[in-house]
Specification:
The complex is a heterodimer of chains A (226) and B (260). Chain A contains nine helices and no strands. The mean pLDDT of chain A is 92. Chain B has eight helices and ten strands. In chain B, helix 7 links the parallel strand 7 and strand 8. The chains are: A mainly alpha (226), B alpha/beta (260).
């Protein structure tokens, strides 16, 4: 068997190199998120948002933008039969799961580095919430990445994958979205960041990540079978 | 001390597996829903032999290759490849089989060389050795000049040449070739023979729609009928390609260009 670290680095490097060359996922995700913030800004007719409304706008936008990336995470394997090349290699199949989830995590982090400041400029009067928000973003990203990779691997062989991914993902991601919005709501308080309940919501999101990481490692190999 | 008898038994089992046929099928069947693609196929193929697999479209040739490559599970029957029972021991075979299918199994946004380097890393081939093999194989197929272009810009024939390099890169013990000549011009076909043609110690299953050519290269021929049943399974009577060392045990491993 090829050492997992070598295989992981090879697969992750391939995905990042391909994205850098083609820019198939990230620009679309960024454009979608920024456009949605503009729509919210004018449809709500508000220059500042606070509390759970601010959290809701941020996380709804990030969720739908991430679906664009999740839809495409296995497309390069589907085209030209790349899945088979990986299945023939002497590697642990869960390495592919880890590499794909890591690539998705990196895409989401890059997306957020660009669009969260845009969100802050559009909707926040006080930027002090942004530093603790990083902890929420990282924890929720892990959940999105793990669940997104799992759902995408199930849907990739279907002609209706663009429809299947949101249909399967959205119900499963509800607990994570509740935790994300709950953790963020206090941070966006009008009077400045309020950490009451912050740790509990973060713990809920972390537990969610842990559960789906275990599920992913347990079932991913079977998802790659014919 | 207690481990010794167990180790000896394992060694004996491993030696027995190595000495057995490369492929042994008993009543292999594969269904796609209601449709029977392979119907009770029996086969014994010795190591170093080439099997020509013939038959009309839809007769199950590609399905049989995918079962042997561990990419499809058999519905029923016994399948033993290089001494490992499928599908339970499929993991033992990964890296020992070279598969050239209808799809090139290449990433179109990577260059030809990057695709091969990726395969080298996934197969755990040391970087220097992988680079030497890649260079030698590209040279043989006259693709060195275009190897740093993206595969998406290649013609079908060029993709096939890179795909052949991909299939042989791990120096597999068993080569499964599904119409390897497709998309290749006559010159390309001749060049490809150096990498995927009959050679001492190289076991091959060759799917082809050119019966005369396939028979000329093979030690055994199998013809599948339209319902996936075996219509013919017999030796061709051609002189054997040789009984030399298996790929991976001789100089061909470190000097790929020597395999001709």
């Amino acid at each position: 068997m090829t050492p997992s670290r070598t295989a992981f680095a090879a697969l992750l490097g391939k995905d990042l190199r391909t994205e850098l060359r083609t820019m198939r996922s990230l620009p679309a995700m960024v454009l979608f998120a920024v456009t949605t913030f503009i729509i919210f800004r004018y449809s709500l007719d508000r220059t500042t948002l606070e509390g759970s409304l601010a959290g809701g706008v941020l996380w709804t936008t990030l969720l739908f933008a991430s679906i664009l990336g999740i839809n495409r995470i296995f497309v390069s394997e589907l085209e030209e039969g790349g899945f088979d090349a990986i299945r023939l290699a002497p590697i642990d199949r869960t390495v592919l799961f880890t590499a794909k989830a890591s690539a998705l995590f990196i895409y989401l982090a890059v997306l957020q580095v660009i669009v969260v400041p845009v969100f802050a400029i559009f909707f926040l009067s006080d930027f002090s919430a942004l530093i603790p928000l990083v902890a929420v973003l990282l924890t929720v990203n892990l959940g999105f990445s793990v669940l997104g990779t799992l759902i995408s691997s199930m849907a990739v062989n279907s002609r209706a994958r663009d429809l299947l991914v949101p249909l399967l993902l959205l119900p499963l991601v509800v607990p994570l979205m509740i935790a994300a919005t709950g953790a963020s709501a206090g941070l966006f308080d009008a009077a400045g960041p309020d950490y009451d309940g912050f740790g509990s919501w973060l713990l809920v999101a972390g537990l969610y990540d842990g559960v789906f990481l275990l599920v992913g490692y347990a079932v991913f190999e079977f998802l790659l079978e014919d | 001390m207690d481990d010794q008898p167990v180790a000896a038994t394992d060694d004996a089992a491993a030696a027995g597996a190595e000495a057995g046929p490369a492929i042994r099928l008993r009543c292999l069947s594969r269904e796609y829903g209601e449709r029977l693609a392979l119907n009770r196929v029996d086969l014994d193929l010795a190591r170093g032999e080439t099997l020509a697999l013939l038959g009309p479209n839809g007769s199950g040739k590609s399905t049989m290759l995918r079962v042997l490559a561990t990419l499809l599970r058999p519905t029923s029957g016994e399948v033993s490849v290089l001494g490992s029972e499928l599908p339970n021991s499929a993991w033992k075979l990964r890296g020992r089989i070279g598969y050239l299918g209808h799809e090139p199994l290449l990433y179109r946004d990577l260059t030809g060389r990057e695709n091969l380097e990726l395969q080298g890393r996934l197969h755990g081939i040391p970087k220097d050795e992988a680079a030497a093999r890649i260079e030698a194989d590209l040279e043989i197929l006259e693709m060195s000049r275009r190897a740093d272009d993206r595969v998406g810009g290649f013609s079908a024939g060029m993709r096939q040449r890179i795909s052949i390099c991909r299939a042989v890169l791990p120096r597999p013990e068993l080569l499964l070739l599904d119409e390897p000549d497709s998309n290749l011009d006559p010159e390309g076909r001749e060049l490809a023979r150096a990498l995927i043609g009959a050679a001492p110690g190289r076991t091959r299953v060759l799917v082809s729609h050119e019966p005369d050519r396939a028979r000329a290269e093979a030690d055994r021929v199998m013809v599948l009928g339209r319902r996936g049943e075996v219509e013919l399974n017999e030796p061709t009577g051609n002189p054997p390609a040789g009984a030399g060392p298996a790929p991976g045990t001789g100089p061909a491993l470190t000097n790929p260009g020597a395999v001709r």
